[in-house]
Design goal:
The protein is α/β, with parallel strands linked by helices. Helix content is 51%, strand content 12%. The strands form 2 sheets. A 5-stranded mixed beta sheet has the order 1-5-3-4-2. The chain has a two-stranded antiparallel sheet with strand order 6-7. Strand 6 (245-250) and strand 7 (255-260) form a beta hairpin. It is elongated, with a radius of gyration of 28 Å.
């Protein structure tokens, strides 16, 4: 798409915040029950503890930032401010402040995305999904989207890589168990080893630098080629000799022979055999 952004994208992204206002952007109060969730909303994960904190704040200070809505045939549809809407319902508010705008379906997506990015409300996975949706629906390239949003193409590409992570890694990212930097590193790990890398990152609560070390270690780890059948045979001979459970655990180089015992008496017998 030479020199272009696809039909309508340029105007949508450059003027999403100026979508035709109603009543000159006058703030009105509406019942939260009249406002439906936005079908184009990029956000999908809402931390309940964080929502409760916001609800407590709203009880004390009210809703400080108006919600953005559009008029529908049966009421209003939310464009931006779903956390505030949910928290307001939790706080038991009878009305919430809103600004009413008009927008078509594609403009609602663009506006919801931009409103959320500007307020840093989206987690990295939600932001990635929103970028992909813009790219798919407007038939544009990563370069086009990056230019319109004032972001580097590599930044957009890194967000989109999050969508290729396995489900458990995406869930960890959405819940904040790993951050965007760690997720980028995880995306560079071979697919077959990503689950192991994720476990090491989350169990040890690594920093980004430490996560990088984990990823490099796993990527450089040679695939074990030792015969499992031979190891099983050796384990059998060792069990017969020690009269105890024995496991052979292979590592990058060499490995360990693990002898299991149930009590001090069995340990003493093992020591006698070794002597």
């Amino acid at each position: 798409m030479p020199g272009g952004l696809g039909k309508g994208l340029g105007s949508l992204l450059s003027s999403a915040q100026q979508v035709a206002p109603v009543d000159s952007e006058r703030i009105i109060n509406l019942s939260p029950e009249l406002i439906e969730a936005n079908r184009q909303q990029p956000r999908s994960y809402f931390n309940q503890d964080s929502l409760q904190e916001l609800a407590d704040s709203i009880k004390e200070f009210g809703v400080l930032q108006p919600l953005i809505v559009v008029k529908t045939a049966v009421g209003y549809e939310l464009i931006a401010g779903e956390r505030r809407l949910r928290a307001s319902k939790m706080a038991g508010l009878k009305t919430v402040p809103v600004i009413v705008r008009t927008a078509d379906e594609q403009a609602k997506l663009a506006l919801a995305l931009l409103e959320n990015i500007q307020r840093e409300n989206l987690n990295p996975l939600e932001e990635a999904r929103a970028y992909k949706r813009l790219i798919d629906e407007f038939k544009i390239t990563q370069e086009d989207l990056a230019r319109r949003l004032g972001r580097g193409r590599s930044t957009i590409a890194n967000f989109l890589r999050m969508l290729n992570l396995p489900d458990e890694a995406q869930q960890a990212l959405a819940e904040g168990k790993i951050n965007f930097g760690q997720a980028k590193i995880l995306a560079g790990v071979e697919a077959a080893s990503q689950a192991q890398a994720l476990e090491e990152m989350t169990t040890a609560k690594t920093t980004v630098a430490q996560a990088d070390v984990v990823a490099k270690k796993i990527n450089n780890r040679p695939v074990a080629v030792a015969s499992q059948a031979n190891d099983k045979g050796k384990e059998f001979l060792l069990r017969e000799f020690f009269q105890a459970k024995v496991k052979i655990v292979r590592q990058v180089r060499g490995g360990q022979v693990v002898i299991l015992f149930n009590d001090d008496e069995e340990l003493a017998e093992l020591m006698e055999k070794i002597r």
